[in-house]
Structure formats: C-alpha cells, structure tokens
Amino acid sequence: MYIILVYDIQTDDEGKKILPKVFKLCKKYLFHVQNSVFEGEITDSNLKNLSAQLNKLVRDNHDSVIIYQIRQEKWIKRTFIGKQDDQTDNFF
Questions:
Q1: Torsion, Cα of 81, 36, 59, 67 (10° steps)
Q2: Tens digit of each residue's pLDDT (9 = 90 or more) over 69-86
Q3: 65 with 6: CB under 8 angstroms?
Q4: Would you place residue 31 in the very low, low, confident or very high pLDDT band (cuts 50, 70, 90)?
Q5: φ and ψ at residue 68, rounded to 5 degrees
Q6: Are 27 and 90 a contacting pair, CB within 8 Å?
Q7: Dihedrals φ, ψ of 34, to 5°?
Q8: pTM of the full predicted structure?
Q9: For residues 70, 9, 92 and 45, what is the CA-based torsion angle, rounded to 10 degrees?
Q10: For residue 48, which phi and psi values (nearest 5 degrees)?
C-alpha cells in the first residue's frame, strides 16, 4: 500500500528531543517529501512496526501523526505550487 504520513511535534523542551527521533524513524520506512511529510510504498507489517514505534515516541496530549492510506500511488494527483522538492530525497 502507499501512505502519506504527516506529523506535528510540539517543540517544547521534550518535543525538541522527540522530533529528530520521529524524523529518523519515518525516514527509515518512507521518502521525505517536505518538512514533516513523508510518503511511499510500505508493507502491512512495516506499517504496523512504524505505527507501534511512533506510539512510543508521540505524546498523546502534545503531538500528532496522521497516516493516509492509499491503495496505489497512481490514484494520487499532485499539484505543486512554489518550490517542488525531490520526492525521492533519502538524505537530510
């Protein structure tokens, strides 16, 4: 399946420690698209692993993660306005 994952980590003192961990974890499974946005093909088992690890990092009362599941990438229509970054960026 294809997913788009977006996150919002509050940048208080604790959040500043969590943010790079969430980024690194997402980068392990998906392509970095833009700031707090990742996307890519992922297996069901990898999605379960990713979700479980995110649940350990993300604070219920401060942070959020949204995962959009799409059957196939071909069903996504993208429109870019402004700067278009390389979607296959694996380096930060």
A1: 70
A2: 987 777 777 777 676 665
A3: yes
A4: very high
A5: -95, 125
A6: yes
A7: -165, 130
A8: 0.81
A9: -40
A10: -65, -40
